Fold this protein.
Amino acid sequence: MSDLESNAKSAYETAQALVDDLTKLGAAWVRYGLSLGESSMQTSARTLEETARNLRKVAERLRSA
């Protein structure tokens, strides 16, 4: 194998390792984003449930007034 072929193979392997690392990093960020989104949605759901309960209480008080 010539020096040129050896250098090309080394460059390819380095590039492939970089692509693999970037793919893993991207996947980690996707997992983090999805986890954060899930938490945010759960918090929003709890807030909306509490708001709905308060609206129901107001409606009941208005009916009985």
User: Anything to note?
Assistant: The chain has a mean pLDDT of 96.
